[in-house]
Amino acid sequence: MRLTKLLGDFDLAEELVQDAIVTALEHWPRDGIPDAPGAWLLTVARRKGIDRLRREARYQRKLALLEEAPPAVTTYTDERLDLIFTCCHPALGRDAQVALTLRSVVGLTTAEIARAFLVPEPTLAQRIVRAKRKIVEANISLRRPDVSELPERLGQVLAVLYLVFNEGYLSSGPERATRRDLAEEAGWLTSLIARAVPDEPEVLGLLALMRLHIARSDVRFDDRGRMVLLKDQDRSRWDRGRIADAIRLIERAGAMRRPGPYQLQAAIAALHAEAPSWSATDWPQILRLYDELLAMTSSPVVALNRAIALREVAGPEAALREVERLADDLDRYHLFHATRAELLRDLGRGEEARAADRRALELTENPAERALLAERIATAST
Amino acid sequence: MKYMLMFVSDEALDRQARPEEIQKGYEAIGKWWGEHAAAGRILDGQELKSTKTATTIRKNDGKVTVTDGPFIESKEALGGFAIIDVPDLDAAIELAKGWPVLQTIEIRPLVESRDDSNTPKDTR
Questions:
Q1: Is A30–B89 a contact, with Cβ atoms under 8 angstroms apart?
Q2: ipTM greater than 0.85, yes or no?
Protein backbone atom coordinates (compact mmCIF):
# COMPACT_ATOMS: atom_id res chain seq x y z
CA MET A 1 0.00 0.00 0.00
CA ARG A 2 1.25 3.45 -0.91
CA LEU A 3 0.61 4.66 2.61
CA THR A 4 3.70 2.85 3.91
CA LYS A 5 5.81 4.71 1.41
CA LEU A 6 4.21 7.99 2.33
CA LEU A 7 4.87 7.51 6.04
CA GLY A 8 8.03 5.41 5.84
CA ASP A 9 6.82 3.34 8.77
CA PHE A 10 4.96 0.11 8.27
CA ASP A 11 3.66 -0.26 11.82
CA LEU A 12 2.32 3.25 11.75
CA ALA A 13 0.70 2.74 8.36
CA GLU A 14 -0.89 -0.48 9.53
CA GLU A 15 -2.30 1.17 12.60
CA LEU A 16 -3.68 4.05 10.59
CA VAL A 17 -5.41 1.61 8.27
CA GLN A 18 -6.92 -0.14 11.29
CA ASP A 19 -8.12 3.22 12.52
CA ALA A 20 -9.54 3.99 9.11
CA ILE A 21 -11.42 0.69 9.09
CA VAL A 22 -12.91 1.44 12.48
CA THR A 23 -14.00 4.83 11.15
CA ALA A 24 -15.48 3.07 8.13
CA LEU A 25 -17.41 0.69 10.36
CA GLU A 26 -18.92 3.72 12.01
CA HIS A 27 -19.69 5.68 8.84
CA TRP A 28 -20.69 3.14 6.26
CA PRO A 29 -23.73 1.59 7.92
CA ARG A 30 -25.11 5.10 8.33
CA ASP A 31 -23.94 6.87 5.20
CA GLY A 32 -23.74 3.91 2.83
CA ILE A 33 -20.62 2.35 1.31
CA PRO A 34 -18.74 4.91 -0.85
CA ASP A 35 -18.28 4.33 -4.59
CA ALA A 36 -14.56 3.64 -4.19
CA PRO A 37 -14.15 2.09 -0.74
CA GLY A 38 -10.40 1.50 -1.14
CA ALA A 39 -9.72 5.10 -2.02
CA TRP A 40 -11.97 6.22 0.84
CA LEU A 41 -9.97 4.15 3.31
CA LEU A 42 -6.67 5.41 1.97
CA THR A 43 -7.84 9.01 2.17
CA VAL A 44 -8.95 8.57 5.77
CA ALA A 45 -5.76 6.73 6.71
CA ARG A 46 -3.60 9.39 5.06
CA ARG A 47 -5.46 12.17 6.82
CA LYS A 48 -4.99 10.38 10.14
CA GLY A 49 -1.32 9.90 9.27
CA ILE A 50 -0.79 13.56 8.67
CA ASP A 51 -2.55 14.39 11.97
CA ARG A 52 -0.39 11.90 13.73
CA LEU A 53 2.89 13.15 12.29
CA ARG A 54 1.93 16.71 13.12
CA ARG A 55 1.10 15.68 16.61
CA GLU A 56 4.33 13.79 17.08
CA ALA A 57 6.35 16.69 15.79
CA ARG A 58 4.56 18.90 18.27
CA TYR A 59 5.11 16.32 21.00
CA GLN A 60 8.85 16.30 20.36
CA ARG A 61 8.96 20.09 20.36
CA LYS A 62 6.91 20.17 23.54
CA LEU A 63 9.20 17.62 25.15
CA ALA A 64 12.22 19.77 24.36
CA LEU A 65 10.38 22.79 25.72
CA LEU A 66 9.47 21.06 28.96
CA GLU A 67 13.07 20.04 29.54
CA GLU A 68 13.81 23.76 29.62
CA ALA A 69 10.82 23.95 31.97
CA PRO A 70 9.24 27.39 31.77
CA PRO A 71 5.76 26.36 32.91
CA ALA A 72 3.58 27.48 30.05
CA VAL A 73 -0.01 26.31 29.90
CA THR A 74 -0.86 26.06 26.25
CA THR A 75 -3.96 24.78 24.55
CA TYR A 76 -1.83 21.94 23.30
CA THR A 77 -1.07 20.73 26.82
CA ASP A 78 -4.77 20.96 27.47
CA GLU A 79 -5.60 18.74 24.53
CA ARG A 80 -3.15 16.11 25.62
CA LEU A 81 -4.59 16.21 29.13
CA ASP A 82 -8.14 15.77 27.84
CA LEU A 83 -6.87 12.81 25.88
CA ILE A 84 -5.31 11.24 28.99
CA PHE A 85 -8.55 11.56 30.92
CA THR A 86 -10.50 10.05 28.05
CA CYS A 87 -8.08 7.13 27.66
CA CYS A 88 -8.32 6.48 31.41
CA HIS A 89 -12.11 6.80 31.55
CA PRO A 90 -13.58 4.49 34.21
CA ALA A 91 -16.00 3.10 31.61
CA LEU A 92 -12.98 1.36 30.03
CA GLY A 93 -11.23 -1.64 31.60
CA ARG A 94 -7.81 -1.12 33.16
CA ASP A 95 -6.02 -3.09 30.42
CA ALA A 96 -7.72 -0.98 27.79
CA GLN A 97 -6.89 2.24 29.66
CA VAL A 98 -3.21 1.34 29.73
CA ALA A 99 -3.06 0.26 26.09
CA LEU A 100 -4.97 3.28 24.87
CA THR A 101 -2.87 5.74 26.88
CA LEU A 102 0.37 4.30 25.53
CA ARG A 103 -1.02 4.20 22.01
CA SER A 104 -2.81 7.53 21.80
CA VAL A 105 -1.05 9.77 24.30
CA VAL A 106 2.51 8.43 24.25
CA GLY A 107 2.34 7.34 20.61
CA LEU A 108 3.83 3.84 20.95
CA THR A 109 2.85 1.38 18.23
CA THR A 110 0.66 -1.60 19.12
CA ALA A 111 3.71 -3.81 18.47
CA GLU A 112 5.72 -1.92 21.09
CA ILE A 113 2.92 -2.02 23.66
CA ALA A 114 2.32 -5.73 23.02
CA ARG A 115 6.02 -6.42 23.61
CA ALA A 116 6.09 -4.33 26.79
CA PHE A 117 3.17 -6.22 28.31
CA LEU A 118 3.89 -9.69 26.88
CA VAL A 119 0.59 -9.84 25.04
CA PRO A 120 0.30 -11.17 21.48
CA GLU A 121 0.06 -8.22 19.13
CA PRO A 122 -3.35 -9.14 17.67
CA THR A 123 -4.79 -9.31 21.21
CA LEU A 124 -3.43 -5.89 22.01
CA ALA A 125 -4.63 -4.43 18.70
CA GLN A 126 -8.06 -5.90 19.34
CA ARG A 127 -8.09 -4.40 22.84
CA ILE A 128 -7.39 -0.94 21.42
CA VAL A 129 -9.93 -1.26 18.63
CA ARG A 130 -12.61 -2.37 21.12
CA ALA A 131 -11.80 0.51 23.47
CA LYS A 132 -11.98 3.02 20.63
CA ARG A 133 -15.27 1.55 19.48
CA LYS A 134 -16.69 1.90 22.95
CA ILE A 135 -15.55 5.52 23.10
CA VAL A 136 -17.37 6.22 19.86
CA GLU A 137 -20.47 4.11 20.41
CA ALA A 138 -21.13 5.01 24.03
CA ASN A 139 -20.17 8.62 23.24
CA ILE A 140 -17.42 9.23 25.77
CA SER A 141 -16.51 12.87 25.18
CA LEU A 142 -12.96 14.05 24.75
CA ARG A 143 -12.69 16.33 27.74
CA ARG A 144 -11.45 16.44 31.28
CA PRO A 145 -13.83 15.79 34.16
CA ASP A 146 -15.64 18.43 36.18
CA VAL A 147 -14.15 19.50 39.50
CA SER A 148 -16.57 17.29 41.44
CA GLU A 149 -15.33 14.23 39.56
CA LEU A 150 -11.67 15.15 39.48
CA PRO A 151 -10.39 13.16 42.50
CA GLU A 152 -11.96 9.89 41.34
CA ARG A 153 -10.97 10.36 37.70
CA LEU A 154 -7.49 11.47 38.68
CA GLY A 155 -7.19 8.25 40.70
CA GLN A 156 -7.75 6.25 37.51
CA VAL A 157 -5.16 8.26 35.60
CA LEU A 158 -2.54 7.96 38.34
CA ALA A 159 -3.11 4.21 38.64
CA VAL A 160 -2.51 3.81 34.90
CA LEU A 161 0.62 5.98 34.97
CA TYR A 162 2.05 4.14 37.97
CA LEU A 163 1.42 0.82 36.28
CA VAL A 164 3.23 2.02 33.15
CA PHE A 165 6.05 3.41 35.27
CA ASN A 166 6.48 0.14 37.15
CA GLU A 167 6.50 -1.84 33.94
CA GLY A 168 9.30 0.45 32.80
CA TYR A 169 11.13 0.51 36.11
CA LEU A 170 11.16 -3.23 36.63
CA SER A 171 9.88 -5.10 33.62
CA SER A 172 7.88 -8.28 34.17
CA GLY A 173 9.11 -9.59 30.83
CA PRO A 174 12.02 -11.93 30.15
CA GLU A 175 13.90 -9.71 27.71
CA ARG A 176 15.17 -6.78 29.67
CA ALA A 177 15.32 -5.87 33.33
CA THR A 178 14.16 -2.29 32.86
CA ARG A 179 12.51 -0.17 30.21
CA ARG A 180 13.46 3.30 31.22
CA ASP A 181 11.75 4.72 28.17
CA LEU A 182 8.37 3.59 29.55
CA ALA A 183 9.27 4.82 33.02
CA GLU A 184 10.32 8.19 31.63
CA GLU A 185 7.18 8.55 29.54
CA ALA A 186 5.08 7.85 32.63
CA GLY A 187 7.11 10.37 34.63
CA TRP A 188 6.72 12.97 31.93
CA LEU A 189 2.95 12.52 31.72
CA THR A 190 2.69 12.75 35.50
CA SER A 191 4.62 16.03 35.51
CA LEU A 192 2.26 17.28 32.83
CA ILE A 193 -0.72 16.51 35.05
CA ALA A 194 1.01 18.10 38.03
CA ARG A 195 1.29 21.33 36.03
CA ALA A 196 -2.33 21.26 34.99
CA VAL A 197 -3.81 20.40 38.41
CA PRO A 198 -1.21 21.84 40.80
CA ASP A 199 -3.40 21.61 43.91
CA GLU A 200 -3.89 17.83 43.98
CA PRO A 201 -1.33 16.45 46.46
CA GLU A 202 -1.51 12.85 45.25
CA VAL A 203 -0.24 13.86 41.80
CA LEU A 204 2.80 15.46 43.45
CA GLY A 205 3.18 12.37 45.64
CA LEU A 206 3.27 10.08 42.62
CA LEU A 207 5.67 12.38 40.80
CA ALA A 208 8.00 12.43 43.83
CA LEU A 209 7.79 8.66 44.12
CA MET A 210 8.77 8.21 40.47
CA ARG A 211 11.68 10.67 40.79
CA LEU A 212 12.97 8.86 43.87
CA HIS A 213 12.90 5.54 42.03
CA ILE A 214 14.64 7.01 38.99
CA ALA A 215 17.26 8.70 41.21
CA ARG A 216 18.42 5.27 42.32
CA SER A 217 18.01 3.45 39.04
CA ASP A 218 21.64 3.70 37.88
CA VAL A 219 22.95 1.56 40.73
CA ARG A 220 20.14 -0.99 40.81
CA PHE A 221 22.07 -3.35 38.53
CA ASP A 222 25.71 -4.37 38.57
CA ASP A 223 27.97 -4.59 35.51
CA ARG A 224 26.71 -8.08 34.78
CA GLY A 225 23.08 -7.00 34.89
CA ARG A 226 22.33 -8.56 38.24
CA MET A 227 20.05 -6.73 40.60
CA VAL A 228 21.65 -4.95 43.54
CA LEU A 229 19.34 -4.73 46.54
CA LEU A 230 18.78 -1.43 48.32
CA LYS A 231 20.82 -2.68 51.25
CA ASP A 232 23.91 -3.19 49.07
CA GLN A 233 23.64 -0.18 46.75
CA ASP A 234 26.41 2.40 46.44
CA ARG A 235 24.52 5.37 47.89
CA SER A 236 27.14 7.88 46.74
CA ARG A 237 25.97 7.25 43.17
CA TRP A 238 22.34 8.13 43.79
CA ASP A 239 21.16 11.23 41.97
CA ARG A 240 21.10 13.79 44.80
CA GLY A 241 19.58 16.52 42.63
CA ARG A 242 16.57 14.38 41.78
CA ILE A 243 16.18 13.31 45.41
CA ALA A 244 16.18 16.91 46.65
CA ASP A 245 13.67 17.78 43.95
CA ALA A 246 11.40 14.91 45.02
CA ILE A 247 11.57 15.94 48.67
CA ARG A 248 10.49 19.47 47.73
CA LEU A 249 7.49 17.92 45.94
CA ILE A 250 6.59 15.86 49.01
CA GLU A 251 6.75 18.96 51.20
CA ARG A 252 4.56 20.91 48.80
CA ALA A 253 2.04 18.05 48.82
CA GLY A 254 2.22 17.69 52.61
CA ALA A 255 1.37 21.37 53.08
CA MET A 256 -2.02 20.69 51.43
CA ARG A 257 -2.89 18.42 54.36
CA ARG A 258 -4.64 15.72 52.36
CA PRO A 259 -2.47 12.60 52.75
CA GLY A 260 -2.83 9.68 50.38
CA PRO A 261 -1.16 6.42 49.35
CA TYR A 262 1.24 7.96 46.81
CA GLN A 263 2.40 10.64 49.24
CA LEU A 264 3.01 8.01 51.91
CA GLN A 265 4.95 5.77 49.54
CA ALA A 266 7.00 8.77 48.44
CA ALA A 267 7.70 9.70 52.07
CA ILE A 268 8.94 6.15 52.71
CA ALA A 269 11.14 6.24 49.62
CA ALA A 270 12.47 9.65 50.72
CA LEU A 271 13.49 8.31 54.14
CA HIS A 272 15.46 5.60 52.35
CA ALA A 273 16.98 8.15 49.98
CA GLU A 274 18.11 10.40 52.83
CA ALA A 275 19.58 7.62 54.97
CA PRO A 276 23.39 7.34 54.92
CA SER A 277 23.15 3.54 55.07
CA TRP A 278 20.68 0.66 55.46
CA SER A 279 21.40 0.33 59.18
CA ALA A 280 21.27 4.08 59.80
CA THR A 281 17.80 4.32 58.27
CA ASP A 282 14.94 5.74 60.35
CA TRP A 283 13.11 2.39 60.52
CA PRO A 284 10.63 3.32 63.30
CA GLN A 285 9.41 6.23 61.18
CA ILE A 286 9.20 4.02 58.09
CA LEU A 287 7.18 1.48 60.08
CA ARG A 288 4.77 4.22 61.18
CA LEU A 289 4.31 5.34 57.58
CA TYR A 290 3.62 1.74 56.53
CA ASP A 291 1.00 1.44 59.29
CA GLU A 292 -0.72 4.51 57.90
CA LEU A 293 -0.45 3.22 54.35
CA LEU A 294 -1.83 -0.16 55.32
CA ALA A 295 -4.79 1.46 57.06
CA MET A 296 -5.49 3.35 53.84
CA THR A 297 -5.06 0.58 51.27
CA SER A 298 -5.21 -2.76 53.15
CA SER A 299 -3.04 -4.23 50.38
CA PRO A 300 -1.14 -7.46 51.12
CA VAL A 301 1.85 -6.15 49.12
CA VAL A 302 2.04 -3.14 51.45
CA ALA A 303 1.84 -5.54 54.41
CA LEU A 304 4.78 -7.47 52.93
CA ASN A 305 6.89 -4.32 52.65
CA ARG A 306 5.89 -3.33 56.16
CA ALA A 307 7.25 -6.67 57.39
CA ILE A 308 10.69 -5.73 56.07
CA ALA A 309 10.64 -2.54 58.14
CA LEU A 310 9.37 -4.57 61.06
CA ARG A 311 12.41 -6.85 60.83
CA GLU A 312 14.68 -3.84 61.34
CA VAL A 313 12.62 -2.61 64.31
CA ALA A 314 11.50 -5.81 66.04
CA GLY A 315 13.63 -8.60 64.55
CA PRO A 316 13.17 -11.37 61.98
CA GLU A 317 10.91 -13.55 64.11
CA ALA A 318 8.19 -10.91 64.43
CA ALA A 319 8.57 -10.10 60.74
CA LEU A 320 8.24 -13.74 59.69
CA ARG A 321 5.04 -14.09 61.71
CA GLU A 322 3.54 -11.19 59.73
CA VAL A 323 4.76 -12.59 56.43
CA GLU A 324 3.32 -16.06 57.05
CA ARG A 325 -0.11 -14.50 57.46
CA LEU A 326 0.05 -13.27 53.86
CA ALA A 327 0.64 -16.71 52.34
CA ASP A 328 -2.89 -17.13 50.96
CA ASP A 329 -2.97 -13.73 49.28
CA LEU A 330 0.56 -13.66 47.92
CA ASP A 331 1.41 -17.24 47.00
CA ARG A 332 1.76 -16.25 43.32
CA TYR A 333 3.98 -13.21 44.09
CA HIS A 334 7.71 -13.93 43.78
CA LEU A 335 8.76 -11.23 46.26
CA PHE A 336 6.62 -12.86 48.95
CA HIS A 337 8.78 -15.99 48.69
CA ALA A 338 12.04 -14.04 48.35
CA THR A 339 11.24 -11.99 51.48
CA ARG A 340 10.26 -15.11 53.38
CA ALA A 341 13.56 -16.71 52.30
CA GLU A 342 15.55 -13.77 53.69
CA LEU A 343 13.80 -13.96 57.04
CA LEU A 344 14.25 -17.73 57.24
CA ARG A 345 17.95 -17.28 56.53
CA ASP A 346 18.15 -14.66 59.31
CA LEU A 347 16.74 -17.29 61.64
CA GLY A 348 19.20 -19.97 60.52
CA ARG A 349 16.56 -22.05 58.73
CA GLY A 350 18.67 -22.45 55.56
CA GLU A 351 16.88 -25.43 54.02
CA GLU A 352 13.46 -23.74 54.15
CA ALA A 353 15.03 -20.50 52.89
CA ARG A 354 16.40 -22.26 49.83
CA ALA A 355 13.00 -23.83 49.06
CA ALA A 356 11.38 -20.39 49.28
CA ASP A 357 14.02 -18.87 46.97
CA ARG A 358 13.37 -21.65 44.47
CA ARG A 359 9.66 -20.90 44.55
CA ALA A 360 10.44 -17.20 43.94
CA LEU A 361 12.64 -18.16 40.98
CA GLU A 362 9.76 -20.10 39.44
CA LEU A 363 7.52 -17.06 39.63
CA THR A 364 9.61 -14.30 38.01
CA GLU A 365 10.77 -13.86 34.44
CA ASN A 366 12.80 -10.72 35.08
CA PRO A 367 16.42 -11.61 34.19
CA ALA A 368 18.08 -9.47 36.89
CA GLU A 369 15.87 -10.88 39.63
CA ARG A 370 16.44 -14.40 38.34
CA ALA A 371 20.21 -13.95 38.43
CA LEU A 372 20.09 -12.71 42.01
CA LEU A 373 17.88 -15.57 43.19
CA ALA A 374 19.91 -18.21 41.38
CA GLU A 375 23.05 -16.90 43.04
CA ARG A 376 21.45 -17.00 46.48
CA ILE A 377 20.36 -20.60 46.00
CA ALA A 378 23.84 -21.59 44.80
CA THR A 379 25.62 -19.76 47.67
CA ALA A 380 23.38 -21.22 50.32
CA SER A 381 24.03 -24.78 49.13
CA THR A 382 27.82 -24.58 49.40
CA MET B 1 -27.38 10.84 22.64
CA LYS B 2 -29.94 8.43 23.99
CA TYR B 3 -29.17 5.83 26.62
CA MET B 4 -31.16 3.28 28.54
CA LEU B 5 -30.64 3.09 32.27
CA MET B 6 -31.44 -0.37 33.55
CA PHE B 7 -32.15 -0.55 37.26
CA VAL B 8 -31.07 -3.88 38.64
CA SER B 9 -31.67 -5.17 42.13
CA ASP B 10 -31.83 -8.25 44.30
CA GLU B 11 -35.54 -9.02 44.52
CA ALA B 12 -35.15 -11.09 47.69
CA LEU B 13 -33.49 -8.14 49.44
CA ASP B 14 -36.09 -5.73 48.10
CA ARG B 15 -38.85 -7.82 49.67
CA GLN B 16 -37.22 -7.42 53.07
CA ALA B 17 -37.49 -3.64 52.98
CA ARG B 18 -39.84 -2.08 55.53
CA PRO B 19 -42.97 -0.34 54.18
CA GLU B 20 -41.84 3.11 55.37
CA GLU B 21 -38.47 2.60 53.66
CA ILE B 22 -40.25 1.65 50.45
CA GLN B 23 -42.50 4.68 50.79
CA LYS B 24 -39.48 6.98 51.24
CA GLY B 25 -37.71 5.37 48.28
CA TYR B 26 -40.67 5.98 45.97
CA GLU B 27 -40.95 9.58 47.08
CA ALA B 28 -37.25 10.19 46.37
CA ILE B 29 -37.52 8.49 43.00
CA GLY B 30 -40.61 10.53 42.13
CA LYS B 31 -38.77 13.76 42.86
CA TRP B 32 -35.64 12.71 40.94
CA TRP B 33 -37.71 11.54 37.98
CA GLY B 34 -39.86 14.65 37.92
CA GLU B 35 -36.86 16.97 37.84
CA HIS B 36 -35.07 15.19 35.02
CA ALA B 37 -38.23 14.62 33.01
CA ALA B 38 -39.14 18.31 33.28
CA ALA B 39 -35.65 19.21 32.05
CA GLY B 40 -36.09 16.89 29.06
CA ARG B 41 -33.38 14.46 30.14
CA ILE B 42 -35.72 11.54 30.86
CA LEU B 43 -37.85 10.68 27.87
CA ASP B 44 -39.58 7.58 29.11
CA GLY B 45 -39.35 4.75 31.58
CA GLN B 46 -41.23 2.35 33.75
CA GLU B 47 -40.98 0.14 36.77
CA LEU B 48 -41.40 -3.58 36.04
CA LYS B 49 -43.35 -6.12 38.04
CA SER B 50 -41.26 -8.85 39.66
CA THR B 51 -39.61 -11.67 37.67
CA LYS B 52 -42.24 -13.97 39.15
CA THR B 53 -44.57 -12.51 36.54
CA ALA B 54 -42.08 -12.98 33.66
CA THR B 55 -42.60 -15.25 30.67
CA THR B 56 -39.84 -16.09 28.23
CA ILE B 57 -40.29 -16.97 24.57
CA ARG B 58 -37.40 -18.71 22.80
CA LYS B 59 -37.17 -19.24 19.06
CA ASN B 60 -34.71 -21.90 17.99
CA ASP B 61 -34.53 -23.56 14.56
CA GLY B 62 -38.06 -22.45 13.84
CA LYS B 63 -39.26 -23.97 17.08
CA VAL B 64 -40.92 -21.74 19.61
CA THR B 65 -41.00 -22.54 23.31
CA VAL B 66 -42.77 -20.58 25.99
CA THR B 67 -41.50 -20.92 29.56
CA ASP B 68 -42.21 -19.41 32.92
CA GLY B 69 -39.63 -17.03 34.41
CA PRO B 70 -37.01 -14.51 33.25
CA PHE B 71 -34.59 -15.21 30.38
CA ILE B 72 -31.76 -15.70 32.82
CA GLU B 73 -31.97 -17.10 36.33
CA SER B 74 -30.02 -14.77 38.56
CA LYS B 75 -30.22 -13.22 41.98
CA GLU B 76 -30.19 -9.80 40.38
CA ALA B 77 -32.98 -8.86 38.06
CA LEU B 78 -34.07 -5.93 35.95
CA GLY B 79 -36.58 -3.92 37.96
CA GLY B 80 -37.15 -0.94 35.73
CA PHE B 81 -35.71 1.26 33.03
CA ALA B 82 -35.44 4.84 31.88
CA ILE B 83 -34.72 6.19 28.42
CA ILE B 84 -32.63 9.33 28.74
CA ASP B 85 -31.29 11.90 26.29
CA VAL B 86 -28.05 13.58 27.40
CA PRO B 87 -24.93 14.93 25.63
CA ASP B 88 -22.51 12.10 26.44
CA LEU B 89 -21.67 9.11 28.63
CA ASP B 90 -20.31 11.32 31.43
CA ALA B 91 -23.68 13.08 31.63
CA ALA B 92 -25.44 9.71 31.68
CA ILE B 93 -23.16 8.50 34.49
CA GLU B 94 -23.80 11.72 36.42
CA LEU B 95 -27.56 11.28 36.04
CA ALA B 96 -27.41 7.61 37.10
CA LYS B 97 -25.29 8.47 40.15
CA GLY B 98 -28.13 10.65 41.35
CA TRP B 99 -30.65 7.75 41.35
CA PRO B 100 -31.79 7.94 44.95
CA VAL B 101 -32.06 4.27 45.95
CA LEU B 102 -29.44 1.55 46.34
CA GLN B 103 -29.42 -0.34 43.09
CA THR B 104 -27.06 -1.40 40.35
CA ILE B 105 -27.56 0.56 37.16
CA GLU B 106 -26.38 -0.52 33.73
CA ILE B 107 -26.08 2.20 31.10
CA ARG B 108 -26.42 1.22 27.45
CA PRO B 109 -26.42 3.56 24.47
CA LEU B 110 -29.39 3.09 22.14
CA VAL B 111 -28.82 2.28 18.49
CA GLU B 112 -30.31 5.27 16.81
CA SER B 113 -31.39 5.72 13.24
CA ARG B 114 -29.43 8.22 11.18
CA ASP B 115 -28.83 11.32 13.20
CA ASP B 116 -26.47 14.02 12.02
CA SER B 117 -25.64 15.27 15.50
CA ASN B 118 -24.11 11.89 16.16
CA THR B 119 -21.47 11.50 13.47
CA PRO B 120 -18.38 9.74 14.78
CA LYS B 121 -15.55 12.01 15.69
CA ASP B 122 -11.85 11.40 15.91
CA THR B 123 -11.45 10.08 19.42
CA ARG B 124 -7.76 9.44 19.47
A1: no
A2: no
